[in-house]
């Protein structure tokens, strides 16, 4: 099996776990490639029992056949990896070195068991739908898509903004707020959730539209079909506003015409046996656990 190791940085506390991973990959006979910038960072700290290759960009998918991309970090690392994988359909396995980890489901204490399952090919993949941003002015370069969410936000400490919102060309509402979020089911457990949005199961075929600190208290998050096109007109006292796709951001003005729809391709995540979305919810959110006597 040929795998790519992708991460953004190496923290001192994670060195033992990263070393264990490379040791297990060598023992299991994996052909391992490492994202170039990360490889340079870890060379002084990690001993390689078997030679590793260098992965540079999504163009490598055109000349090499990879079976899986393994991320080391949290959910943010998987969001970054999505801009590298793009439409190559290579499945991503997230090893959680962060805190919450709804997407990076494999805990760092389970590396040996996880690598054994990969060796035996005892895993499935699940497709996660993504958002695509249409703009009448060029922003976000070659990756105008998001796995989690798209947001429009005020900048700095400026006053609230007005976001005129349309669904399939029909007027929905003018949101007076600090911003608005359009989230996928995957992104429903992210920023949208912290702003009062609902949790949506993967594969539900929905988008969640969640206002950020709305001025009208009767304005609530709504769920719409993911075959909808949601378009926006934005205005406010400030000249500039912020548009984001996952963890990436661009400065825009009221002259930008923006719309989001379902992306033509999705992201494929590795699904290991015994780990379901409901298990993740209970584990990460402490559902069903009564801690009053502890």
What percentage of residues falls in helices of 4 or more residues? 10-25%
Strand order of the largest sheet: 3-2-1-4-5-6
The CATH superfamily label of the largest domain reads Probable inorganic polyphosphate/atp-NAD kinase, domain 1
Task: Tell me the span between the first and last alpha carbons.
Answer: 45 Å
Overall pLDDT: 93
- What's the number of extended β-strand segments? 20
The main sheet comes to:
6 strands, parallel
The shape, in one word, is globular
- Known CATH architecture of the largest domain: 3-Layer(aba) Sandwich
Low-pLDDT residue intervals, each spanning 5 or more residues: none
- When the domains are counted, the total is 2
Task: Look at the helices and sheets and give the structural class.
Answer: alpha+beta
CATH class category name of the largest domain: Alpha Beta
Radius of gyration over all CA atoms, rounded: 21 Å
Please indicate the percent range of residues in DSSP E strands (runs of 2 or more).
25-35%
Tell me the CATH topology of the largest domain. Answer: Rossmann fold
Please count the helical segments.
6
Listing every helix as H and every strand as E from the N terminus to the C terminus, the arrangement reads EHEHEEHEEHEEEEEEEHEEEEEEEH
Description:
Helix content is 18%, strand content 34%. The chain has helices spanning 15-27, 36-42, 75-85, 111-119, 191-194, 277-285; strands at residues 2-6, 31-35, 53-55, 68-73, 92-96, 106-107, 124-128, 131-135, 145-146, 149-153, 161-167, 170-177, 179-183, 206-212, 222-225, 230-235, 241-245, 248-252, 258-262, 267-271. The N and C termini lie far apart (45 Å). With 294 residues, it is α+β, with helices and mostly antiparallel strands. α1 links the parallel β1 (2-6) and β2. It has a 6-stranded parallel sheet with strand order 3-2-1-4-5-6, sandwiched between helices. A 6-stranded antiparallel sheet has the order 9-8-19-16-11-12.
């Amino acid at each position: 099996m040929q795998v790519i190791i992708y991460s953004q940085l190496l923290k001192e506390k994670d060195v033992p776990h990263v070393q264990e991973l490379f040791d297990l990959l060598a023992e299991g006979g994996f052909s391992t490639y490492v994202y170039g910038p990360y490889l340079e960072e870890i060379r002084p700290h990690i001993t390689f029992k078997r030679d590793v290759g260098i992965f540079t960009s999504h163009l490598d998918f055109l000349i090499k056949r990879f079976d899986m991309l393994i991320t080391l970090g949290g959910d943010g690392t998987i969001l970054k990896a999505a801009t590298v994988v793009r439409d190559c359909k290579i499945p991503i396995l997230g090893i959680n070195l962060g805190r919450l980890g709804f997407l990076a489901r494999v805990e760092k204490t389970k590396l040996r068991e996880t690598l054994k399952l990969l060796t035996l090919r005892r895993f499935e993949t699940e497709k996660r739908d993504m958002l695509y941003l249409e703009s009448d002015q060029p922003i976000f370069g070659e990756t105008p898509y998001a796995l989690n969410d798209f947001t429009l936000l005020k900048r700095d400490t400026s006053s609230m903004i007005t976001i005129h919102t349309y669904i399939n060309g029909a007027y929905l509402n003018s949101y007076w707020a600090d911003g608005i979020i359009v989230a996928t089911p995957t992104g429903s457990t992210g920023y949208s959730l912290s702003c009062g949005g609902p949790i949506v199961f993967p594969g539900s075929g929905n988008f969640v539209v969640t206002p950020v600190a709305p001025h009208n208290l009767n304005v609530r998050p709504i769920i719409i079909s993911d075959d909808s096109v949601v378009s926006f007109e934005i205005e406010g006292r400030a000249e500039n506003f912020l548009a984001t796709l996952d963890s990436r951001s661009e400065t825009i003005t009221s002259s930008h015409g923006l719309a989001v729809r379902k992306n033509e391709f999705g992201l494929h995540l590795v699904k290991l046996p015994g780990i379901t979305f409901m298990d993740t919810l209970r584990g990460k959110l402490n559902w069903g656990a009564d801690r009053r006597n502890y």
